[in-house]
Automatic annotation (TrEMBL):
UniProt entry tagged with the keyword rRNA-binding: no
UniProt keywords, alphabetically: DNA-binding, Transcription, Transcription regulation
Species this chain originates from: Biostraticola tofi
Transcription in keyword set: yes
Coiled coil spans: none
Protein name: AraC family transcriptional regulator
Residue ranges occupied by any HTH araC/xylS-type domain in the UniProt entry: 184-282
GO molecular function, one term: DNA-binding transcription factor activity
Database matches in SMART domains: HTH_ARAC (SM00342)
Amino acid sequence: MEKLAQQTQVLANWYRESDKFSTLMNYQILRAGHIRTAENFHVRRQSVVGHELIFCLKGSGFVRLEHHLYEVKEGCLVWLPVRWPHEHFPHKDEPWEILWIRIDSEKLSNIMKILDVPQNPVFQFDNPEKVTEIYHHIFSLMKSHTLVTDAHCDELCARLIFTLLENRSTEVTKSPVITHRGLGRLIYQIHSHYSDDWDIDIFMQYCQVSKSQLFRLFQMTFNQSPLRWLKKYRLSQARRLLVETQESIGRISGQVGYNDPLHFSRDFHREVGLSPSDFRRREQRMD
DNA sequence: TAGTGTCCCCTGACCCATGT
DNA sequence: ACATGGGTCAGGGGACACTA
């Protein structure tokens, strides 16, 4: 089929100044719009205020954040913390049509961290129509600017954030149900003493099972092997310590159970995509 | 038949040395 | 602080056996 040369069509575009109404709300919508892109459409920015939530209505596109490139397919939403250097552009073969809003709120940085957006900014939905509906509802309200419409937009932003939290709750906040008594005992011990020297033999002793049974238990409960689970837990504690304290990387690596800071740095980089010091700098920049 | 244990082999994590 | 390469060995998982 012959491909027609297309131009980007801006189907809707709104801009809001911060004023006495908007500062009353939890979420301030700064910009919003609906764009049908051509293949040459490309946005590249160093830093702007707020967070952009881009929903891919049709086609597909890409976003780049912190040197990582993510594909965004039809029915997916990407959360872009636009204070960081970023870019987005459509797939050449099927340029995307997007609905987007740029919102700001002092709460968003924390919500973003809880949702693990820096590592995983793309959201997929079982029911994307629910998200589209929220965008269109916001757009219809953006046409007028009153205290009532602003309050309504605030409610819709909260609903959108709720949808994202709900969407990711299975990955982020759901604790696996631990039915095995020995495994429960082991997990409790690790949470209390995660910096101790743990190995498979000690795991087996706590659980009172053989090695293969231990692996099966971890696979069933956490969908990963015992030491991989331990490593992820230690690195999550390291992230917390890097943000909450000013301890050196070497000291933190020891506190979370690594004998070798180099080994810690390498694992951290693999898991987070940044070195521990870069991660700390970035988190401090966000506050 | 489901649950569990044993054996065995390959992979990759870890440690160390070295360099930037 | 971080990267890289090489040697070592524990982890991981498949195949099969055992047992209640």
